[in-house]
Amino acid sequence: MSGELEAVVRRVRRLEQLKKDRSVQRANRVLQRVWDAGRRPEKITLRRGLLLSGRQDPAPPLTQLLRPRGVALRFYLLAVFEAQCRLGVGDEWNRTDSPPLKGPNSWSDFVAIDGAYDKPSNTYMPATTWDRDIQTLRRQQIHGALRTLEGLGPDAERALVEVPGRRKGGRDYAAFSLMQETGRGDAQTPALYFAPANTWHATFTVPAEFFLHGWIQVLQPSEVATWMILRWLAQTFPRKHAESGVYLYANDRTGSFRLRRDSYEDACNRLCEFGLIQYARADFAVRSSSGPSSSLGPEAEAQQFLMSFSQPTRPDIHEPDHYQVTDEGLANDALETCNKELLLRQNKLRQRARAEAPSSS
């Protein structure tokens, strides 16, 4: 089995297990209750420092969290979602008002995971111990996520949470504090999270459906990162997005976002299949609603700052694919959509493998 096919098989197997145990559906219900009981934000606002850094600076937090295991990126985004359901613009994080770490409607209930897969038996965790073990595993995953988020950047300056210690030793994970998207900073007083106002090119927005319909649970970290980068570009360059699509040249992808080529290209392919982006089309300009407003004045004012995103560094450089963000796809059930598209991809890869296999005769 080729590496590409094997990766798709693993992912399909995971999605089918999530569907079987209804963990995504249950997490969606908990997040819906959080949204209903709070300010019911239509969009979640994120600072651009989450995904973009200077070329001489450490990698942005988003890229540092592109790890094959663990739920650190997912947990941080879920924490921001929960915070903005409670907090108005400018309101600061208060851990006493946040959910508990375990129990009904807790942080543990926010995350859908599939448990441990046993390859020899081709099964997941035994059904007789599933409920108990999966709850323990979710808490362990969150503890690991908090440790990862706390350790970002040199001397933890990019830390996205702080976890206090206990008097008798160990960590008090339930008492963690959330930091801003750029990290705690290098001052003695940490930069506690507060809900930002939506400001052109300094922030970008993510529709609440991304969280409420399960996309946060089933997309891979590289897909989340690529989708958010394209969203920021679309909202920063609304006219370019509407008329010809947004894109990344290699020097921007590796220099400002620190995203590897294979991760970016694979993620774009999957996001197109899932209906979250599309290859740029000329007629998109007529119906596009991307961008913070229809005003194009501020875009010209910041052109010097953002010039690299529209100019290659060499005249002979390959022209990248142009994409447009299609928020309509977020209205679909993420688990069903991804499972369907990946099954189609799995079948195509198997057919190709059979066609390319040497004849036995």
Give a verbal description of the structure.
With 361 residues, this protein is mainly α. The chain has 15 helices and 6 strands. It is globular, with a radius of gyration of 21 Å. The protein starts with a helix and ends in a 5-residue tail after the last helix. The strands form 3 sheets. A two-stranded antiparallel sheet has the order 1-4. Strands 2-3 form a two-stranded antiparallel ribbon. A two-stranded antiparallel ribbon has the order 5-6. The chain has helices at 3-21, 23-37, 61-64, 72-86, 107-110, 130-150, 209-212, 215-218, 221-236, 238-243, 250-255, 261-274, 284-287, 297-301, 334-356; strands at residues 43-47, 161-162, 177-178, 203-207, 277-279, 323-325.
Topology diagram in text:
Layout: H1 3-21, H2 23-37, E1 43-47, H3 61-64, H4 72-86, H5 107-110, H6 130-150, E2 161-162, E3 177-178, E4 203-207, H7 209-212, H8 215-218, H9 221-236, H10 238-243, H11 250-255, H12 261-274, E5 277-279, H13 284-287, H14 297-301, E6 323-325, H15 334-356
Antiparallel strand pairs: 1-4, 2-3, 5-6
Helix pairs in contact: 1-15, 4-6, 9-12
